[in-house]
């Protein structure tokens, strides 16, 4: 079975206040790999399934790219994972 696993980017998580910018103007942020879908992908592959992962925190994987791949490859299952932040404004 072909499975697509998608880590959905939380726009609020990446909306950083100006004070997080370094003196050189770069934004300081820690990148987190999508460990949840990576772990699930490993288990699915061990069970003999084909698994494709997408991480929307990567700017090279916008919605359009993922939708094109879904239409092209026709996976049997599309799983969504997301970061639920516990921070408040």
Keywords:
89 residues; 3 strands; elongated
Task: Give me the count of strands.
Answer: 3
Round the mean pLDDT to the nearest integer and report it.
83
The amount of beta strand, in percent, is: 15-25%
Low-confidence stretches: none
| Tally of DSSP helical segments | 3
Secondary-structure-derived class: alpha/beta
In helices, the fraction of residues equals: 25-40%
Instruction: Compute the separation of the termini in Å.
Output: 42 Å
Please summarize the sheet with the most strands: 3 strands, parallel
Order of helices and strands: EHHEHE
- Numbering strands along the chain, what is their spatial order in the largest sheet? 2-1-3
Query: Which radius of gyration do the C-alpha atoms yield?
Result: 16 Å
Outline? elongated
Q: How many individual domains?
A: 1
Give me a quick take on this structure.
The chain has three helices and three strands.
Characterise this structure:
The protein has 89 residues and is of the alpha/beta class. The protein has one domain. The protein has three helices and three strands, in the order βααβαβ. The chain has helices at residues 11-14, 35-46, 63-73; strands spanning 2-8, 50-55, 77-82. A three-stranded parallel beta sheet has the order 2-1-3, with helices on both faces. The protein starts with a strand and ends in a 7-residue tail after the last strand. The mean pLDDT is 83.
Secondary structure blueprint with pairings:
Blueprint: E1 2-8, H1 11-14, H2 35-46, E2 50-55, H3 63-73, E3 77-82
Parallel strand pairs: 1-2, 1-3
């Amino acid at each position: 079975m072909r499975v697509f696993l998608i880590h959905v980017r939380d726009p609020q998580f990446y909306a950083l206040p100006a004070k997080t910018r370094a003196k050189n103007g770069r934004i300081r942020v820690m990148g987190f790999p999508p460990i949840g879908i990576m772990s699930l992908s490993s288990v699915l592959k061990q069970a003999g399934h084909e698994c494709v992962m997408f991480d929307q925190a990567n700017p090279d994987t916008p919605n359009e790219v993922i939708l094109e791949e879904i239409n092209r490859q026709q996976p049997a299952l599309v799983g969504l994972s997301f970061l639920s932040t516990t921070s408040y404004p």
